[in-house]
Please model this.
Amino acid sequence: MPTTKPKAVPFEWLERYILPKLGDALRQDLEATLDELKQLRTSLPASSLNPKDAIKIFDLRYNQLFDAWSLADNELFEIPALLVAIKNEYLFVTEGSLSNNALTQSQINNILIICIGEEKRLALQEYNRPNAAPSTQSLARPTTPSSDPAPLLLQFETKLNRLVTYKKEKRILQGIADYSLWYDKDEPMGISLILIEAKREGIVHRTRESQGKQNKLVYGLSTDGNEFQFWRLDNSSELTRSRKLDWKGGDGSRIVSYLRLVIRSAILSSLSTTPIKDKERRDVSLSTFRDPEKIKSFDYGGRRFNLPELGDDDDDDDDNMDIVDLSLLNSNLHR
Model:
């Protein structure tokens, strides 16, 4: 005998006709279940989208004429000796082992943390020695001075969400940033820059736009620990992307350089980092590159954005934001 497919019952019908007839305990259980089902019905995981979907949802477009990721070989940073030693140790210990997510994630952790450390030391050095000579060499590890820029803090896993229209339906687009950076542990996490997988950049970009933020710049990265691709979403909702970079294929220095440039961009444009809000100090920091005019494409205050200088009234602009200020998101290659 053929089975009959159960008929779907609308949530509204259950809430109107069934819930009032139930006892308190059973009614509460059913209400909780319905709430969970409603959330599942409206949620849209960012991982389920392809690039074309994301571009359409957030009304983005590619800019094929501008390359934010163009650096000459003499503009690149050296790979820090500490990172070289750690990666060599990984190769020695894991030789012959199968690759897995945990191993990949730990290698990405090392690259990111060492790059953040290099930029934090450089920011402290430039803040305390305004006339420091330009250099792209990895810095020694100085002692922390008593008068510091606002501290750069690292956090793992931060949820991102945004109400979007997908296939003519209102959905909540959800994603997780694996890493987050922000300033000042005593203040709520404010927005300056985001570094996330390209499919999730639009969440942050459009959130800033709806709240009237002048700086909607977002950086993205997709990587499996060896192959890296960088993205940039600017204030005009235009996307630019780097070529795919291969660490084992000799692109390690370029990968480190791009990461450090993005981290530096956060330091230069952070609304809560007063030491480098000053234009002269920003230019001093930019002078650490051999071609500071080109590197200004990474600077929120730079000429390519044509935005006004940050003013004193902007300091508390992001106090109530719940999306982090710099995030590096996940180990899946952008497809």
Q: What stands out?
A: The longest strand covers residues 152-166. Residues 14-43 form one domain.
